[in-house]
Amino acid sequence: MVHRSNDLVLCPETYLKECYDQEKFKPALLSFKSKLQASLQEKQNSSDISGNYPSITFLGTGSCIPNKTRNTSGILLSLSFDKNLIMDCGEGTYGQIIRLFGLTKSDEILRKLSAVYVSHLHADHHIGFIRLLLARRKAFHRAGIYNVPKLILLAPFKIMAYLSSYHANFEPILNDFTITGNQKLLTDGLKLDQESYDDLCSQLDMKRIDMTFVIHCPNSFGVAWTHKDGWKVAYSGDTMPCSGLVDIGQNCDLLIHEATMEDDLEEDAKIKTHCTTSQAIQVGRDMNARYILLTHFSQRYAKVPLLEDLPAQVGIAFDNMTVCFKDLATLHHMYEALVAMFAEDYDDMLEKTAKKRAARERLKQQAKVEGEVQ
Ligand SMILES: [Zn+2]
C-alpha cells in the first residue's frame, strides 16, 4: 500500500527484517542474549550497585550535525523519581524527548527538570536550550501551574549574549532560568561563596559539583556530579585527553566520555581537539572509573563506531538508550550484535580505514625517498 498522506508512518517490521537479513545478525543476537542472561544471573548473586536511579538516557550521541541515527549532544540524567538534569542540549533535544517518551511523559520529565548543564558553546551542544526552556514552561502551564520554578542553567557565561539577544528580539525567556557560569564552579578556583555553592548543590541533591577546564575550544568544561546518595558521574563534554578531567572524575561510578574518532585518526582527533576511542578509555582508566560510556561519535560512524575491541567496563551510547548502573556491566556484550546488524556499514568503514592507512604509508615512503635523494 502506498502512503500519500504527510503523516509519519513507522514500520518497525521493515527495520527488523533489514537486521535479520544480515547473515551474522541472528547468531550474534542469540549469543548476546545468552551472555546477558548469564550476567543478570551473576548480578543477582552479588551486591552490585542496583536501583533505578540514576538513569541515563542518551538523546543525542553524534558530533557536529544531526543525522537519522545520531542527534547532536544531549544526555538526560534522572537523579531520582522527581529530579532530572540535562547535560548538553544540542538542536532537537526536546524533539528527541518527545519521540522517545510521548507528550504526557515528556511533560512530566520537563516539570521535573531542575537544571541544564552546557559544557561549551559549540552549537551542537547548546542550540536546543531555548526550545527546551519554552517547552518546559508549557509543560507546567498544561498542568495548571503558572508560577513556573526557575530552571538552573550551568553554562559558560558567554551564552548570555545569545540568550539575552533572543529575549530582546523575539520573546521573553530570561525569567525562566537562573544562570551560574561554569567558570565560577571550577574545583581549583571556586568563585562562589560557600553558602551559594552549598545551596546550588542542595537544590540538585548533590554532595559536590566539580568542574574543570578541558582541552577543546575556549571555555570548554568537564563536570563531575557527586550525589548525596554517594554515586558519582563524570562527563567530558568535548575534549582531548585531559588531566583536569582525570582529577575531578577520580573513582567515579560512570564516566561519559566523547570518543569522536577511531584510533586510526589520532592526528585528525588532535587537530579537531577531540579524543579517539582508546584515548577516551584510557582517561577512564586513569581516573579509576568503574564504567565508561563512549559518546559523541563523528557522523562517519553514525551506525556503529569502529573499535579494535571493547573492554568489559566500556559501553557505546546510542540515541534513545536508557541505562541504570546495574545495566552497565552488560553493555560491552552488545558490540558484536551491533556490528552484525550494521555489517555493511561496518565493512565500508573498515575498507575506508584500510585505504587511509595505505595512502598514509605511500606518503611516508615518498617522503623517505625524497629525503634520501636530498
Ligand atoms: Zn565542540
From TrEMBL:
Q: Kindly state which reaction or reactions the protein catalyses.
A: Endonucleolytic cleavage of RNA, removing extra 3' nucleotides from tRNA precursor, generating 3' termini of tRNAs. A 3'-hydroxy group is left at the tRNA terminus and a 5'-phosphoryl group is left at the trailer molecule
Superkingdom of origin: Eukaryota
**Per its UniProt record, what Gene3D superfamilies does this chain match?**
Ribonuclease Z/Hydroxyacylglutathione hydrolase-like
Q: Which GO terms describe its cellular component?
A: mitochondrial nucleoid; nucleus
Q: What is the first-listed, main subcellular location in coarse terms?
A: mitochondrion
Q: Which metal ions or organic cofactors does this protein require, according to UniProt?
A: Zn(2+)
Q: What class of enzyme is it?
A: hydrolase
Q: Which family does it belong to?
A: Belongs to the RNase Z family.
Task: Give a short account of what the protein does.
Answer: Zinc phosphodiesterase, which displays mitochondrial tRNA 3'-processing endonuclease activity. Involved in tRNA maturation, by removing a 3'-trailer from precursor tRNA. Associates with mitochondrial DNA complexes at the nucleoids to initiate RNA processing and ribosome assembly.
Official protein name in the record: Zinc phosphodiesterase ELAC protein 2
Native organism is: Homarus americanus
Question: Species lineage, top-down?
Answer: Eukaryota, Metazoa, Ecdysozoa, Arthropoda, Crustacea
